[in-house]
Amino acid sequence: MTNTNKDSLFVLIKSLSKSEKRQFKLYVGRLGVNTDAKFLALFNLLDKVKEYDEKIILDTAIVKKAQLSNLKAHLYKQILVSLRLNPVNQNIRVQIREQLDFATILYQKGLYKQSLKILDKAKSIAIENEEKNIAYEIVELEKVIETQYITRSIPDRADELAIQAKELSAQNVMTSKLSNLSLQLYGQMLKMGYVRSDKDYQFVKKYFESHLPKYKIEKLGFREKLWLYKSYLWYSFLTQDFLSCYKYASKWTDLFYDNREMIFLNPVFYLKGNNYLLESLFYVRYSSQFKETLEKLEETIHDANFPQNDNVTSLAFLYINSNKLNLHFLEGTFEKGLYLVKIIEYGINKHKDRFDEHHIMLFYYKIACLYFGIGDNKTCIQYLKKIINNKNLKMREDLMCFARVLSLVAHYEAGMDYHLEVQLKSTYKFLLKMNDLHAVQKEMIKFLRGLGDIYPSDLKNEFQKLYNQLKKYEDHPYEKRAFLYLDILSWLESHLEGKPVGQIIKEKAKLLMR
């Protein structure tokens, strides 16, 4: 039996909406000979079954085992062709590409003038919508045609095309360099999280400065500016300069609001920019601006012109609900955020084929923190186990590390300290292996390890000592990241003041309110 998640055809069919399935059948039935086609029979079968099982397919005698692979490939292609014809998927980018295909067909038939006319119109639309890669392809085809069909209307047509090709090429090279830099920095963020030492910082700084191309901001177009701001944003995240993150995430989103048509042409970049802006606002504790940004994002998503496709819908769900959780963390309103748990679990199940593993685990960590905030430590531990026991999680090592530290604290709070020594050793080894053992974590493990030798009457003094020890790391350039994942100081204050941790965070939020 093939794993459901690994069979691309089965996943594609299950992702289709009712209208898309109906359109596919209409598309297949456009010619009578296709109504009994084997690939349609295979489609109907896979549409009905809940799990992919090759044996079920072969038992129906639709196809022999030797032919199954080819039939599946053919069906996959036909579904994609049908989806391409769907008006929902007919955005500007697809339309320009279609016009380029039409022009190529006309050129191959020797109808040069008709081909050039279509290309000229498509090129204008491409440049207007910042689709410079396609625009460059169009210019290159125009150059090929002009060598065979000399137009007399524009004497310097050759020079015009040569200059245009040179300008587009330079812009595309700049975009490529900036997008490469952004991608590499993002990869570093996923792999190791924030910089952990001066050595890490110098490495990231040197890499960024050596790969950042020289530019003049006034000469950059929309797409080049977008990648530039993304590069600066990832550099700022890596170096934990959250005010700088806020600055460049704001520039990113403002770029879209200043070019509103780009929101609907590039909805994914728009959504991501807003998500990073919200993340930055969360880190600098700017709750009023956070609320305003989240409301503006939801308003735009519900705009009638905002694209509605599976990818956009999944991302919108991810970013909206993740940041709704963050808002409750900002304000300390943990109990009010509990309603989100069922919504998120339903959404994870619905969008599981489109969410990567680390985003799902990040949801679980946030939910665990939500339960920790209301004192439901046993439920907190259940969600942390989903992360700790996940053997497939290769990204965000810092997330795995802090999940283990929070698990230790939750076990202690829940009175489940009979296995604490084993967990302490396991966590210590894991952190050493990940090269992620920092001062904050060392102090936490040292404190938890010594709890068994402390008299109940001395416990408050020990909490105070740990608090004083950790407080000095709150603004440390490399240690402060520990407090982004787990508000250890508020947990200690809750023990010192005899208040629930949620109440402590809520009181802090009121003082920081702006």
Q: What's the count of strands?
A: 0
Largest sheet: none
Please report which band the strand proportion falls in: under 5%, 5-15%, 15-25%, 25-35%, 35-45% or over 45%. Answer: under 5%
| Residue runs with pLDDT of under 50 for 5 or more positions | none
- Mean pLDDT figure: 84
Class from helix and strand fractions: mainly alpha
Q: Can you give a write-up of this model?
A:
The chain has 514 residues and is an all-alpha fold. Helix content is 72%, strand content 0%. The N and C termini lie far apart (56 Å).
Summarize the entry for a quick read:
With 514 residues, this protein is mainly alpha-helical. It contains 26 helices and no strands. The protein has helices at residues 8-15, 18-28, 38-48, 54-59, 65-85, 92-108, 112-128, 132-146, 157-192, 198-211, 222-238, 242-258, 261-265, 267-283, 287-301, 310-331, 339-351, 357-373, 377-388, 397-413, 420-433, 439-449, 459-471, 482-485, 488-497, 501-512.
Question: How are the SSEs ordered, and which strands pair?
Answer:
Elements: H1 8-15, H2 18-28, H3 38-48, H4 54-59, H5 65-85, H6 92-108, H7 112-128, H8 132-146, H9 157-192, H10 198-211, H11 222-238, H12 242-258, H13 261-265, H14 267-283, H15 287-301, H16 310-331, H17 339-351, H18 357-373, H19 377-388, H20 397-413, H21 420-433, H22 439-449, H23 459-471, H24 482-485, H25 488-497, H26 501-512
Helix pairs in contact: 1-5, 2-5, 3-5, 6-7, 6-8, 7-8, 8-9, 9-11, 11-12, 12-14, 14-15, 14-16, 15-16, 16-17, 16-18, 18-19, 18-20, 19-20, 20-21, 20-22, 22-23, 23-25, 25-26
